Amino acid sequence: MKALVKAKGEPGLWLMDVPEPEIGPGEVLIKVLRTGICGTDLHIRKYDTWAQQAVSLPRVIGHEFVGEVVEVAPGVTDVAVGDLVSGEGHLVCGKCRNCLAGRRHLCRSTVGLGIGRDGAFAEYVTLPASNVWVHRVPVDLDVAAIFDPFGNAVHTALSFPLVNEDVLITGAGPIGIMAAAVAKHAGARNVVITDVSPYRLQLAEKVGVTLALNVADHTIEEGQRKLGMREGFDIGMEMSGRPEALREMISNMTNGGRIAMLGLPSDEFPVDFAKIVTSMITLKGIYGREMFETWYAMSVLLEGGLDLSPVITGRYPYQEFDAAFDEAAGGRCGKVILDWTV
C-alpha cells in the first residue's frame, strides 16, 4: 500500500510502498479516506529536536483521520465492517492507576499514533477497537478527519463552565478557532480571540467570535474597553504556546479567573506568579482528549449545529502531500486535508 513515511533522519517525508498492516487481537483494520495535517506532522517533516527524540524510524506518520472498517479481529463486537470511524490517537496501557480509574487520558505510558506506532497517512491503518470512534450520525468526511484536533479544542473549551462568561483565547490557529466556535455555541457572552495573522483572525470571524484582535496593533485592554468590559475575563484558553500570550492573559483575567492551557511552549519561560496567587487564578494543563467523554461532546455539538467548515481551507490528493504540507506550514490556512480515495 502507499504510505507517507518518515524514512530517514533528515528533513522530509517519503511516499512509499509498504506492507499492508495486519490486525492483532482486539484490533480493527481501517481503509483510510481522509486525513488532516497536524502541527506534530510538521515537526516530524522538519525533523526538529522534538521529532528526533520522539519518533523512531522508519515510521508511517499521521493521526488525524476518518476511514471505513474493512476487517475486525475475532471477539470484537462493538465495531463492525462498514462502520465509518475516526480514531483516538493516544493508545494507553489499560493497567496503570489512571487507566483503571477510567482516567485514560492521564495514562503515563501513552503511545502516540504516527509517533510510537505506524499511523494513518496510509491507505490502511490498524487500531485497537477500544480506540475507535464510530460515527453513528451523518458527518462530513472532512470534519470527521479532524475529530482529533477538534477534540483538543472541545477538551480545552469545556474545562470550565462557559454560560454568560467572558472568554479570552490567545492563538487563532485551527484549534483556537474551533475552541472559539465551541465557546460561542456553549453560551459564552463575549469571545475574544487574539493573533498576529490577519488571515487567521478573518477565519475566526467566520465562526462568530465577538472580537478578533490583532495584538500587533491593539492591546487586550483596548479590546476590553471596546466591549465595555470592566473587570477582566472569566475564562482564558491559551492556544499559542507563546510566553507573551500567557503573560498578557494572566494580566487581563478577573479575580478568580480560570485558564485552560493547550499551547505547548518550546522552552521554559517566566510568569508573574504573584499575580496568579493574589488574583486566585486557576491554571489547568490540557493534553489530548478525555476518553471518551470529549468524543461524545464533539458528536453532540455537531448534531446541535456547530459548523466547523470555515476551519477547513485546503484539500489535496495524497500524492500532492508536499504542496499540502507547505500550505500547512505557511500559516495562511486553517486545517489542510489529504484525500486518500483518489
TrEMBL record:
Zn(2+) 2 binds at C93, C96, C99, C107. The active site is at T40, H43. Keywords: Cytoplasm, Metal-binding, NAD, Oxidoreductase, Zinc. Pathway: Metabolic intermediate biosynthesis; 2-deoxystreptamine biosynthesis; 2-deoxystreptamine from D-glucose 6-phosphate: step 3/4; Amino-acid degradation; L-threonine degradation via oxydo-reductase pathway; glycine from L-threonine: step 1/2. It catalyses: L-threonine + NAD(+) = (2S)-2-amino-3-oxobutanoate + NADH + H(+); 2-deoxy-scyllo-inosamine + NADP(+) = 3-amino-2,3-dideoxy-scyllo-inosose + NADPH + H(+); 2-deoxy-scyllo-inosamine + NAD(+) = 3-amino-2,3-dideoxy-scyllo-inosose + NADH + H(+). Binds 2 Zn(2+) ions per subunit. One of its GO terms (molecular function) is zinc ion binding. It comes from the Bacteria. It is an enzyme of class 1 (oxidoreductase). The record marks D148 as: Important for catalytic activity for the proton relay mechanism but does not participate directly in the coordination of zinc atom. Gene3D superfamilies: Medium-chain alcohol dehydrogenases, catalytic domain, NAD(P)-binding Rossmann-like Domain. Its main location: cytoplasm. It is found in: Cytoplasm. Residues 174-300 form the Alcohol dehydrogenase-like C-terminal domain. Belongs to the zinc-containing alcohol dehydrogenase family. DOIA dehydrogenase subfamily. Catalyzes the oxidation of 2-deoxy-scyllo-inosamine (DOIA) with NAD(+) or NADP(+), forming 3-amino-2,3-dideoxy-scyllo-inosose (amino-DOI). HAMAP family: Thr_dehydrog (MF_00627). This is L-threonine 3-dehydrogenase. It comes from Streptacidiphilus fuscans.
